[in-house]
Amino acid sequence: MLLACSKLTVTYSGRTALKSFDLTLKPGEVRALIGPNGSGKSTALQAMAGLLRPSGGHALIDGLAVDAIPRRRLARQLAYLPQQPTAPDEMTVAQLVRQGRFAHVGLLRSYRAEDEAAIGWALESTRLLALADRPLRELSGGERQRAWISAAIAQEARILLLDEPTSFLDIGYQVEIIDLVHRLSRERGVSIVMAIHDLNQAMSVCDRISLLAKGETVFDGDPKDLAEAGLIETVFRVRGTFVPIAPNAPPHFDVELAHRQMRTGGLARQ
Amino acid sequence: MTPVPEIARNRRSLSSLPALAGLLLLTLGLSVFLGVADLPVSDIMSVLAGHGSPEAQSIILDIRLPRIVTGALAGIHFAVAGLILQTITRNPLADPSIMGISQGATLSVTLFLLFSVFLRDPGTTARITEMPLEWLPAVGMVGGLIAGAAVYALAFRRDLGPLRITLCGIAIGAVLHAIAIGVIAGWGSARIEVLLEWLSGSLYARSWEHALFLSPFTIAGLLALLPIRRALDLLQFEAPVASSFGLAYRQHFSFALFLSCGLAASAVGAVGPIVFVGLIVPHLARALVATRTPLLLPVTVTLGAITVTSGDLLGRLAGQADEIPIGVVTAVCGVPLLIVFLRKIP
């Protein structure tokens, strides 16, 4: 098993943000983390990235606790992209993506052909080659987000942790990111854990899905089974139905909106 | 979001380093040739060639040159210390005073002068010339470093965030400054002149000893910067991002902080707190360099030397016999620049 969390628990000054979180990640697997705001998705990702000291349980990579692995060695295994990271004003896209190679070059080693190739590939995969020399502050929110994703994949780690990578992107770029995640997992064998708000995108791209609520895992399994578990409506406090869209694809969740309900109610009365 | 004339900007920054080097040479040259004592150019030339009148030799070799070298080195120290602090705290208004360096140095120098005067010659009034001035650089540096260490220790007890460092630094700096001012006010003696001159940041009567005191720190500091340049790039990010890129954040943050404190404290000890150099020069350098970040350090070093040397020249010429201390010149010239830069920050 590549990455394994067992009974991972994180407490912030008395408040338990993540409780007994279990997760196993196989090579090339895409795992989606869904759940309402404040359900512990980001906390789980940070703990897996070794950035938080768990108060109980552990996250292991190849049997070693992530928070005990030296950062640079860990960074060659695992790349983590937080929500809305910030970069210095004058930094260009290419300079940001270059930072992704630090795990490989360290403080002193010069950049080799393989590093330049990884940077070029990362820029190309995120369609940023044309913007490479532009300062980040001149980019749109979507372009900036892609630059960060580019930096994370330039790291060429086996595990990629993404915290809401598609938030603030328009639908076109959202689909591009989702496709990129799929390509990375299938073509390069990268294992990806991704917190994401769009339920249908999550279901369509992931191999397994975890549903969190108030720090606890209420579902862990195949996306198709999640549809049948009936948990979405209670956890997210919505009403809706899963609609089949294609024979081999997970169904789509169709939310019922209050005003539409009223209209259909009115029709029924007539 | 305005379109930026990329080509024009790159051309400007490409030419900036040789131009700056030329400017530095010009400033250094002018500082040798111009001064309160009106020496003819021919006399100065012959001194530089190895002969010349004893009087001219003394003015150039014992007064002007050590003063210029000390000033240039101190300028490099303040500018690089400011650049490091602004980078790692992600605070564009950071300078060595946010680590309590100048305040700690001020207090230690104040106490040192006070005690040395009273302990050495109890009962008699020691003259200013008898004060142990040769110890001031070391005393100031140690005081600055102790203050920096106190800030570090206070911030280190919790997480070592940039904001926490800044807040602790401001708090400790304010306390030290208040104590020093209290001591000065209570002292009330004519000997306070020495202290006031040091406090305003001055290159007056700086000798080769000061330059020799500074140069090992300059060399060590700049050499230590070279291998951590990539770490400094990563320290511009928030801790989680830098850590995920593979940086041992705490160690590198601490080392960079230590380096900037060492540079600032040694310079404060030698020439007193020269206000604004550490704040303004990195901004000037950034504006010149734009996106060509590898040039940032060399440009900062050169600009730091230029700023202090030209500021001192200005103070010497403008004040004539009653020269204006360099600290006053940089503060007076720095404020308009600061206001211009603040307008650029969104």
UniProtKB/TrEMBL annotation, chain A:
What SMART domains is this protein classified in?
AAA
Q: Which GO terms describe its molecular function?
A: ATP binding; ATP hydrolysis activity
Asked whether the UniProt record includes Iron among its keywords, one would answer: yes
* CC terms in the record's Gene Ontology section: plasma membrane
Q: Which domain of life is it from?
A: Bacteria
Arranged from A to Z, the UniProt key words for this protein are:
ATP-binding, Cell membrane, Ion transport, Iron, Iron transport, Membrane, Nucleotide-binding, Transport
Q: Does the keyword tRNA processing apply?
A: no
Q: Name one GO biological process term.
A: iron ion transport
- Which SUPFAM superfamilies does the record associate with it? P-loop containing nucleoside triphosphate hydrolases
Chain ranges of the ABC transporter domain: 3-239
Q: Which CDD domains does the UniProt entry name for this protein?
A: ABC_Iron-Siderophores_B12_Hemin
Places the protein is found: Cell membrane
UniProt membrane topology term: Peripheral membrane protein
Q: Family assignment?
A: Belongs to the ABC transporter superfamily.
Q: Which PANTHER family match?
A: IRON(3+)-HYDROXAMATE IMPORT ATP-BINDING PROTEIN FHUC (PTHR42771:SF2)
The name under which this protein is listed is: Ferrichrome ABC transporter ATP-binding protein
Q: Which organism is it from?
A: Xaviernesmea rhizosphaerae
Automatic annotation (TrEMBL), chain B:
Highest taxon listed in the record's lineage: Bacteria
Task: Give the main location.
Answer: membrane
Cellular location of this protein?
Cell membrane
Which processes are annotated in GO (biological process)?
siderophore-iron import into cell
Q: How does it sit in the membrane?
A: Multi-pass membrane protein
**Per the UniProt record, which residue ranges are transmembrane?**
17-37, 68-85, 97-115, 135-155, 167-190, 210-228, 255-281, 324-342
> In which family does this protein belong, per the annotation?
Belongs to the binding-protein-dependent transport system permease family. FecCD subfamily.
Q: Which PANTHER family match?
A: FE(3+) DICITRATE TRANSPORT SYSTEM PERMEASE PROTEIN FECD-RELATED (PTHR30472:SF37), FERRIC ENTEROBACTIN TRANSPORT SYSTEM PERMEASE PROTEIN (PTHR30472)
Name this protein carries in UniProt = Ferrichrome ABC transporter permease
